[in-house]
Amino acid sequence: MTLIKSISGIRGTIGGKMGDNLTPIDAVTFAAAYGTWIKNQRQKENYRVVVGRDARISGEMIQSLVMQTLVGLGIHVIDLGLSTTPTVEVAVPMEHADGGIILTASHNPKQWNALKLLNAKGEFLNGEEGAIILAIAEQGNISFADVDNLGNITKNQAYIDLHIDEVLDLDLVNVKAIENAKFKVVVDGVNSTGGIAIPLLLERLGVHPVKLYCEPNGHFPHNPEPLKEHLTDLSNAVVKERADFGIVVDPDVDRLAFMDEKGEMFGEEYTLVACADYVLSKTPGNTVSNMSSTRALSDVTKQHGGNYEASAVGEVNVVELMKKNNAVIGGEGNGGIIYPELHYGRDALVGVALFLSLLAEKKMSVSALRASYPNYFMSKKKIELTPSLDVDGILKSMEARYSHEKLTTIDGVKIDFSDSWVHLRKSNTEPIIRIYTEAPSQADADTLADRIISEIKAIANI
């Protein structure tokens, strides 16, 4: 089993030995380190931290441990209970809190959970801040509050509704046009908190939601990563219900994918492309995505007269470059929409509202909308890591092998060919090497990925 300690938090599998898995002791240790960091850097009398969780089976246990640890440090906790990652991000500044913790392992299977850590802006910590917290956890130099200065816990379960209010108040969300379109949409909430938030949002927009796996019990009915091969039931439901399209989110609702009226994937990469197309048509400007995202975003941005730039993979890196370039929208090709008018975080609720606004104004089918964008195809593959595998050495060898091509090495190795690209990098969230490719056809993308994997295996003798 696995425990991954990184600058973005701590992620692991439930059960097993302390230090090798996400055990109660590990949850307490890292919650205490985070709370200590909050107190050290804020230097004030009263501290407040917002805590929410997705619907994972282990969520209630981990959240209780985390909250009571913060209480023991003298920190007041705002308990959102079942929530979404973007909802917690929105709640932190609204509560004037010092930070936030989301208990979720995003797209990982049900045996995983994680502590995702936020700063006072409701944004993910940067590398320097994360490193300090890891050092505090390692050193164990943590001092708890005395009995007269313990924190307390205040429950507030209104924040999903408040989050929806903030989305509907955005200037570019065309509520009237969406209501008039009378859409019917199937929602796959993967039995997590998207099953609460997305139908509520749709109902507020006058959309008829057909619920599929929207019971937040943590028993994921399929692999929770919103990829085509996991979404047969959604495809069948869209066709059977004669719906306008389908929506699927990951367990913590920061990734968003659509399915067209024919039951075909719109393409997870094209979630950001479509939302950016809409935003840029109203507010021309720049865009940012990470290096593993489709070239189609660059194409659409240039069509609207803006500039596109790519960051290293990771939400904090995308946000940093978005701020630097004054991007009007950005995100990640895994279906993560970051719209700064609301907050600097991936947000499926904002993505749904922007997509519906675009569709309502264009008055076209989802399949026709997809056909209007540049056509690229991606392959996303991986190689499982073993202790003997020298990942850095492998990447250096691939860099040398393709030194005659356009290379980017700020995050692994990206090789840009004339009509395709490949990005190789070690995952921040799983013990794997990711191999992403993009080409003019699916066959070309798959062939390129398989060729690169064969080269890696030859280099590593595996």
UniProtKB/TrEMBL annotation:
Top-rank taxon, per record: Bacteria
Names of required cofactors: Mg(2+)
Family affiliation: Belongs to the phosphohexose mutase family.
Enzyme class: isomerase
Keyword entries, A-Z: Isomerase, Magnesium, Metal-binding, Phosphoprotein
Lineage, broadest ranks: Bacteria, Pseudomonadati, Bacteroidota, Flavobacteriia, Flavobacteriales
Native organism: Geojedonia litorea
Transmembrane segments: none
NCBIfam families on file: Arch_GlmM (TIGR03990)
Ranges where the Alpha-D-phosphohexomutase alpha/beta/alpha domain occurs: 8-139, 173-263, 270-375
InterPro entries found in the cross-reference section: A-D-PHexomutase_a/b/a-I, A-D-PHexomutase_a/b/a-I/II/III, A-D-PHexomutase_a/b/a-II, A-D-PHexomutase_a/b/a-III, A-D-PHexomutase_C, A-D-PHexomutase_C_sf, A-D-PHexomutase_CS, Alpha-D-phosphohexomutase_SF
Protein name: Phosphoglucosamine mutase
Domain Alpha-D-phosphohexomutase C-terminal: 400-453
EC number: 5.4.2.10
GO terms of molecular function: phosphoglucosamine mutase activity
